[in-house]
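ok so I'm stuck.
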Amino acid sequence: MPVRSSRLAGFYRLSVEERREALREACELSDEAMDALADGGALSEEAADHMIENVIGRFTLPLGLATNFVIDGEQYLIPFAIEESSVVAAASNMAKRCRDTGGFRSSNDPPVMLAQVQVLDVEDVNAAEKAVLDAEEELMRICNERPSTMIRLGGGLRRLTCHKVEALTGTMLIVHLHVDVRDAMGANAVNTMAELVAPRIESLTGGRVLLRILSNLATERMARIEARFRPESMDDGGDAGAGAKVIDAILEAYAFAAADPYRAATHNKGVMNAISAVAIACGQDWRAIEAGCHAWAAVRTGTYTSMTTWDKDAEGCLVGRLETPMAVGTVGGASKVHPTARACLELLGINGAGQLASVLAAAGLAQNLGAMRALATSGIQAGHMRLHARNMAVSAGAEGHEIEQVAERLATWDGPRTQTTAQHILDALRRDG
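replied:
not stuck anymore, here's the structure
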C-alpha cells in the first residue's frame, strides 16, 4: 500500500499509541500489521523455537519510524529496529533536506547471487577449467531442471565462470555459479545448486570438491543510490552562504574517511547503523549484508575506504552516492515467518527485493550524511546526548514524569554528562520534592 506522505509533522511529539494511529492513517495498514507493531515482539514462543536451536526466550529492540523519505518519486516511511539514540532522527532529518531536489534516486543490478564450488587436487587446472566451461550447458540443465518457484518465476543459473586461487595449500580451481534468485535473498537456492553440480564438476575436473557455498560479496547484485542537497538545506536557518561552509566541512570530513581506514571503519559503521536497522526490522540476513558491504569497501579500491562518495556539483550542491552489494529478499526467510517483519514490509509497501534494496541504501546514505554533518558542525555528542539522556535517566532509576525532568536537566548540564551525573540529578530532584 503506497504511503500518502512521508512527512509526518510533529510525529516525534506524539505518544507511541498516537504514532501508531497516525501510521495507520498514512499507510492504511491491515489490522494484522497494526497488532504486530503493538505486540512488543509479536513472535510467539512456538515460532521462535522453530527458527533457531535451544530457545529460552525472545529479544525485543525498539522499532522506530524514519520519516520524510522520497525514493524514485515514491514516499516511504522506513522502520528501524535499533537500540542506538539519534539514528532515526538523523536519517529523517537528512531525508527532509533533499526532498526539494527530488529525494533519492536508485539504480540496482538484477538479483544475481554467486555460489562457489572449491575444486582441489587438480593435476591440470587449465584443462579442468576448460572442461567445466565446455560443459556449461549440461551443468545449467542440472540446476535449472530442478522444480522450484524461483525457476518458475524466471530465475535460475545464468552462467558459470572459473577462477584460479593461489593458496597456502596450492592452486585451487573455483567455479562460480551466477544465479538469478528473483525476489529471494538466495542463499538456499544457490547452495542447493552448488550441491547439485558438485559430483559432475568432480568427474569433469578429476579433482576433489570441498566447499559448495554462496558468497556474501554479491558484486553482481549492487544497489546504487544518489541524492543532492542544496547549500541552503544544509543550514538550519536556510542561509545558502552558511550552508556552503557546512558542505565544505562535510567534504573535508569525507576526505578523511576516504583516505584513512581507521576513520573509514567508524564512518561506515554510521552507514550500517541505518542499513542494518532496516534489515533487522524487515527480517533480512543483516550479517550477510554487513559482510558484503564491508568487503566491497575494501576490494573496490584495494584498501578499506568509505562506502559512500561525496562531492560538489557545478551549482555548489552536495551530491552523495552509495554503491554496495545488497542481498535482500521479500520471499522466504524471517521476512515471512516473523509477524513484525511482515508488518514492516507492509508499511513500506515493498513489492520486490530491488525496491527493498533501494530503501536500505537510501537509509544508509541519509544516516551517513547525518553523522558527518553533526561531526563537522556541533559535534556528534550534542544531538546524540539530547536523545541518549532519556536512556541515562531510566538507567539511573527515574520513573514516569521523572524521566523527562532528569533528561532535560542532563541535556543542558554544564559539565561531564555521565551516568553518575544522571544519578545525582535524580537524587536532587527527589530531595527537592
